[in-house]
Amino acid sequence: MAALLAGAALMLSGCGLADSHAVWPDVLKVKATEPAPLETPPDVKRLVAGKLDSVFTAGSQPAHVRVSPPLHDPRGTGWTACVRAELTSVIGKSLGTQTYRVFINDGAIFDRRQVEADDNCVTETYESVESSVQLEAQRSSKP
Description:
The chain is of the alpha+beta class. Helix content is 22%, strand content 27%.
């Protein structure tokens, strides 16, 4: 029994030796995993226009919506973009221009957060999505 346990321990102790950095022949080495390929840059204007409720609350009445070009998200294979709009509070008071960073993965907005002063959204260039919003509204109102 002791010989069986010693043999099993010897076999298991060699498991970490055959990684991609070991001094073993290539056939015995574990292949290093390649990073996942990047997604195609998303059409941020279309995404935001079609899903305003995923960026802004329903009662905020977003106007003059603008988006920045997509940037690769350094935390993964997705994308980020900045979205700006003039917002109104639920009591009708103007909140002014508010900026959010949206996170896009698999062609959909999956998260958003309000930007802070040190965010690079301040220096981004923006394009209006008003025409896209109007086009989406016309499409959804047609039977």
